[in-house]
Amino acid sequence: MSDDSERLSGGDLLARSLSAAGVRKIFALHGGHLDGFFKGCVDQDIDLIDTRHEAAAGHAADAYARTTGGLGVCAVTAGPGFTNALTAITNAQLDGSPVLFIIGAAPLREIETNPLQGGIDQIAAARPLAKWAISVPTTERIPDLTAMAIRRALTGRRGPVVLEVPIDVLHASVKPGQATLACGLNVQPRPAPSPDETRRLLALIRAARRPVIIAGLEAASKSMADALTRFVTATAIPVFAKTQAIGLLPPDHPLDGGAAGNLGVLPAIGVQRPDLVILLGAKMGLLLGGRSGAIVPHEARLAQIYSDAGEMGRLRDVDLAIAADGAETLDSVLAAAGPRGLPDFAPWAARATAARELFGQAWPDRETAGGVHPYHAAAAVAEAVGREAIWALDGGEAASWMGGCVRVSGPGRVLTHGYLGCLGVGLGFAIGAQIAHPERRVIHVTGDGSMGFHIQELDTLARRGLPVVTVVMNNQVWGMSIHGQQIMYGQNYNVISRLGMTRFADIAEAFGCLAERVSAYDDIVPAMRRALASGRPALVEIMTDGDIVHPVTVSMLGKAAQDTGEVLIPYYENLPA
Fold first, then answer.
1. What's the pTM value of the predicted model, to 2 decimals?
2. Active site residues
3. How many angstroms from the chain centroid is the CA of residue 128?
């Protein structure tokens, strides 16, 4: 056998390293810089799912990670391929989603020659936005650096990592014995709390009269759902969830308080506020009321269970910070409770969860002069779909209306915006979720504004035969934008916040999807059932009233206190006088 036949290219080494890590799906868009790697994927029987835009490929890999609990992988070419993916990298970073971004690069040997797609320092650009980023310097280092990237993505606070592989490093070859080993791929620690932390959390619970649990994205896993069910069965502590943690408790569970925002409603219905908040896999920020105390009361004691100790105390003092696995922590507390057990908070839970039924009562009219009421449109979609689907929610108010109606029977089945507030994630999320879970229906709900970001991914659905059902709530405006402008400056004011009558059903049909437009409430459920029964990629366009304002817009916009001279800063804290 000749020496040439005993050599492995960089593309072979990279594909073999990923295969050893259990990677079977990679989301990508073709670029010549990575052809050597793509050939290796074919040889390793790794499926390449190509999208029409690199951001969508990144969002799809992100959704794959969120819904499986494992690693998502995205591969994009150099230059504009990389810069197009930066939004997806940032979105994964802020939400703590473990995605490996493999990016091509111009040859190392042609540095500073103004080569094609090589005039920027990609790693310098990626480092502030990713958990970790590195460029592979030589072909033989591909396996160990790939393994290191995977470990960094999946351990501690999870997040995206960027692995740059220059084209000459990828196409060069080495003898098998010269290559490093892809070591440490089985490193998956699940740290438990210390005995002292367990005792202190147990003491906080026993001292409380009105405890609640608020679950976040880091808690959206099967192991956490099982542990949480065991824990609340023993304690009857009510559970509230950020949108992406919906489904940790079974539908209609008596301890399911619904959205975390429901805690802010309690005073209005005559219910005392919590005196102990346990943040489970959640971090403080705008989505939990910021520094306002509206959701996490200032006077309540606070325990936070999160992988990143640096998050503890971000906006207020934490009475107990536990940087450990949430499921291990809950089980440790149950074990430490012993024969004495834990208090029964069922009477409190019945009062605390009362707000979850109030959401739809404010809007009795299903249709208005301007179209279907968006709440009732969302409720009808949820009714038609049931509780076994995976949801990808996009848009400003469209996602909020749908998030208030979705019911799912398990965790990790609701994907939506995190702290980046990134519109346009929906179709990429839907693609990744459908690839990860071919046995489950995926429903993509978006507004007509957000649908415009990556509408070309309808082509990806059609080419791949992915039976995603897209619902466009078309109110012909950027809803959150125009409503915010009108609240601040008057009903007659708007600037670049109106959209024309784009016929999304017609566009979807041209892409090869089943599509129809409905303008009456009674037509929504039948249209959804036809779309679901088709087994094809489908789109249902619902004409909704653009004048209806979602309460989340009002609450996020805020207001300036009268006679104080405060300056209203929408979505952020006001400027003092």
1. 0.95
2. 33, 54, 117, 421
3. 20
